Amino acid sequence: MDAEQPLNETEALFTEESYDDRQFASVSCQDAELKDIEFFQCRFDGCRFLRTTFRQCRFEQCVFEKCDVSLLKVPESSFIGVRFLHSKTLGIDWTQAATPLTLAFQWSNISHSMFMRLSLQRLEMVECVAREVDFTGTNLTRANLGKTDFLGSRFADTNLSYADFSKAVNYAIDPRTNRLKKAVFSMPEAVSLLSAFDIVLK
After folding, report:
1. What is the CATH number of the domain that holds 167?
2. CB 120 within 8 A of CB 101
3. Which of 29, 75, 77, 189 has the maximal Cβ count within 10 Å?
């Protein structure tokens, strides 16, 4: 398969209904729709799925490394134990996906994505760029969010109990409107938690 030639026809890209323990390298696909395909323990290396729609697909224990899946659409698709490493996952509305949803991100750019009202307990989002991400009403209990940049991200009615923000930066979290029981923060960034109060720091 020519890695430089974008594929727009679904049948030209995936001809089987189910893939188990397969590796896909340098696959390029954009503005296409893939439907009712299952991937079990598959690996995607250096693939591009720009503005691609995965409709009613299933990904279980899969890894995306050095991939660009920006503006991916995931209506009714299932993601169980899926990891994104060194990848771009910009502008994805994860609320369209089937639940439960178990994801992990490391060294990835997740900016402009939406996770509103999802249950993402123990989510891993480590050493990522997560700017302008919407976590409104999201359950992030025991999430590992260390060393991630949350500039402009929205936390409102978010459950951050036991979440770990160690060395995370640029978050704006109002303790009055979010649950922070036993959440972990690092200094000096943790001082930003006081910005919601009418106080003077010296």
Report:
1. 2.160.20.80
2. yes
3. 77
